[in-house]
Amino acid sequence: MERSAEPAQGAAELLAGRSPEAADVRALRARIPCSPIARALLRVFEQDEKTLHHAYRKWRGPHWTLTCLALIDYPPGDEALRSLVRRVHDWFFSEHFLEPPLTVTYPGQDDRVRHCASMDGNAIRTGSTTPSSSTTCCSPCR
To answer: Given Cys at both, which of 75, 76, 93, 98 links 135, Cβ 3.0 to 4.6 Å?
Structure first.
């Protein structure tokens, strides 16, 4: 497999099995926030309120932005992402999330709620890779 020259695309492959403390690994990860893919994803902040309002808006809402940033190994600690995380969490804990079509229950099986588990899985993953008080983003591109 040929490695990509784009830091965000090739990062996961290049970093697999490597110590996160290695100088070359830290240098590669530091380039991810400035990559064209990351910068395109971060344009979510330029979108209209309607797009930002619905966390799951396909491929453009905060849920998908955070998911895609996690997939390219975007480094944790970017405080700007905190508002997106909050929007996704607010959506997850809203009554609307438990209503059709997002969540379905069948008569006689009210205790067996069904919805797309990738929504939950992606939110858990992005929640573990977004800002925390112990990490900071060192991105000079903003």
So the answer is: 76
Give the Cα separation of 9 and 54 in Å (integer). 27
DSSP 103: S
Percent of the chain with pLDDT over 70: 70
Residue 118: both structure tokens together: 């990738």
CA angle 59, 83, 93 (to 5 degrees): 80
Query: Would you say the pTM of this structure is higher than 0.85?
Result: no
**For residue 120, what pLDDT band results from cuts at 50, 70 and 90?**
confident
E strand map for 56-129:
none
Q: How far is CA 53 from CA 31, 50, 61, 108, 124, in A?
A: 30, 5, 8, 34, 20
56-82 burial string, b = 16+ CB within 10 Å, else e? bbeebbbbbbbbbbbbbbbbbbbeebe
How is the chain split into domains, by residue range? 7-129
